[in-house]
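User: quick one, sequence for these tokens?
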């Protein structure tokens, strides 16, 4: 697309003016096409200055423009992000992926600047205000045995922690399902999948990731439980760079199902981050409540819990309470 070719030329000129005539000759398009391209880039938030008889210059390239172009060109992997759909507003990126699953392909990414009906686990709402957070869904269309799904989600949680460490320079920790900064949640993951009855394998997985990035405040009912990377680190975070890091880190474990061979490392990193060993926890699974002490994790990512009566339970899903480590 012409506009991104213009952008790259302006970038290479490092803040110097470049004439419309030069751009049009270089790209072999009309001056009107250059003018339209420049306007479209400005609308997307690029800081371009235009002066008569001088031309155009990109005077600030530190913007946080989330677009397929910016993200794709920085991805290092081969599976994730062949197609990236970016929306300004959507109901929910996970709901969109589910609706469109037949035409979506393995590795497709859906990103929105705002969600009107952001969904969390257990039918909760995920607060998704405009231009503050990352609301992103990764579509995996491959056959995975249900046994490996928890392991995959554990690997993904670790990968997001790596990306947060790189971009926000903080060390996040994990509760069973959430990523936290200090004692408050900064990221939630909602994994949804469909199983094929005959084979018992997945047809697709939809991995929804919500990160509170640059929020400066939260509604009253949330502010004791959640925070943002900006509040915790004290600095504004570039969401585009964080998205790129998250995808690159996730690719390291999803490409060629590497999480299977990296099982041992994934589980031991996860256990360190959740810090639940020997802690007493309460886990709610639908109407059932399990109370016990965590003694480890099995090789599928299930928590091993010993109850007061000495009986062992392996837990893969549910809402965990009482782990305020
Ligand atoms: C949770 O904390 O309970 C999970 C939250 C998951 C939120 C993400 S944001 C992108 C994707 N779309 C949704 O509607 N939910 C997930």
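Assistant:
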């Amino acid at each position: 697309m012409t506009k991104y070719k213009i952008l790259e030329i302006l970038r290479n000129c490092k803040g110097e003016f470049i004439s419309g005539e030069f751009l049009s000759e270089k790209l072999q398009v009309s001056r009107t096409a250059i003018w339209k391209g420049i306007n479209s880039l400005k609308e997307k938030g690029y800081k371009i200055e235009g002066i008569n008889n001088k031309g155009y210059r990109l005077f600030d390239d530190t913007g946080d423009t989330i677009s397929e172009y910016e993200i794709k060109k920085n991805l290092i992997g081969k599976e994730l992000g062949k197609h990236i759909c970016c929306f300004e507003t959507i109901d929910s990126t996970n709901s969109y992926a589910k609706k469109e699953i037949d035409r979506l392909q393995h590795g497709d990414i859906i990103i929105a600047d705002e969600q009107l009906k952001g969904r969390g686990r257990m039918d909760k709402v995920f607060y998704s205000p405009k231009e503050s957070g990352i609301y992103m869904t990764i579509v995996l269309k491959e056959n995975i045995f249900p046994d490996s799904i928890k392991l995959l989600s554990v690997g993904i949680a670790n990968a997001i922690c790596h990306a947060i460490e790189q971009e926000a320079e903080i060390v996040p920790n994990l509760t069973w399902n959430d990523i936290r900064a200090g004692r408050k949640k900064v990221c939630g993951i909602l994994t949804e999948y469909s199983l094929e009855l005959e084979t018992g394998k997945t047809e697709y997985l939809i991995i929804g990731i919500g990160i509170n990035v640059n929020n400066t405040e939260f509604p009253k009912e949330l502010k004791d439980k959640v925070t943002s990377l900006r509040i915790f680190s004290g600095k504004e975070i570039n969401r585009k760079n964080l998205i790129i890091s998250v995808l690159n880190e996730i690719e390291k474990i999803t490409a060629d199902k590497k999480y299977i061979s990296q099982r041992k490392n994934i589980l031991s990193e996860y256990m360190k981050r959740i810090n639940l060993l020997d802690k007493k926890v309460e886990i709610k699974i639908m109407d059932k409540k399990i109370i016990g002490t965590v003694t480890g994790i099995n090789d599928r990512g299930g928590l091993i819990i010993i109850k007061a009566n000495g009986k062992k339970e392996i837990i893969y899903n549910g809402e965990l309470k009482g782990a305020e480590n």
